[in-house]
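Standup notes
- DV: blocked on the single-chain target, sequence here:
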Amino acid sequence: MHCPVCSENEWHQTETRTQRATDNRWKSGYPKIQKPVFFDLWHPNKKIVEMKRCVCKKCGFVIDLPRPDEQEVNNKYQYLALVEKDMGSSRTISPKAMKQEHKQAIDILDLAKAHLEYTSDVLDILDYGGGAGHLLVPMKERGHNCYLVDYNKSPMVGITRLGNTLEDIPRDQKFDFIMCRHVFEHVASPKTLAAGFMGYLRNKGLVYAEVPIELFGATRPTDDPVTHINYFQKDSFRILFESVGFSPIISRQKSTTYHGRHIIVAQILSRKGPYQGKIISYGNSFEKTISLMTRSYFTRSIIRMRHPLRFGRSLIRHVRKITLAKETGDRTDSPWCLFL
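- DV (later): unblocked, structure below
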């Protein structure tokens, strides 16, 4: 298939993982809710699915095959909206995490205002995929007009919900600033979404986007094939926006928090402008992705130890894996199982 970021069709395959409907991971917790998505909506009549992890040789973007199309992703969210009543709700975020989120929202707003090439006391701001719109609350409190696009149908007070997708927004409505945080890792056509933002931005308008970087030591497809279907690093995320005509202002990798969890993300701030037809700088994006994916377990552990809370949580997860392996006899990927 053609790369959803750069449209090339040369891939480097790393490793595989088999998903079985009878695996214990599907029998409880959130995976139990996800199971009908993967085996009924995406792979009907299949009980075993062989997943392949592939890296684009041009831009370093990573996908797992087979991959859901746009309709299948849409079916996923329609299903989850029915069974997961709090999907995108602020009720799932702790008060401490909410304070962190609001501080990040102000930082994002200040970043955008610092790079807008025109001044306005009141900005029209869109949060695409922002759940109930909690990031918009502190922006609304500062007098800006705040709009939301999300499958969550219960926006927070003062936030105007426009619909589920970009197609629900009136074509003549324009925004000064579009925020899209932790969305691109979920969509079937990231390039289509990035290009779609163009039509809803005023001239010289800005887009801020953020995705998690989940490629550290991840040569195999993830245990969770439903939640995320796109895997970026800093350069491949920048290439995505350059490929549709945006001019990146800031492109960086950063340690931050998301809903209270410490994670590594790729962030980009881009400006809309007349497309210059410039040559995209792919650089060594593919080599960077491979380097991240093949990082040793020891190196990853040293990095985690720099953050004691994150390392403690990782240790707890591994202990749980060992306990489960003892109870079920199932193999796990954790090196800790060498002590069994």
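- Follow-up: The first strand starts at residue 11 and ends at 20.
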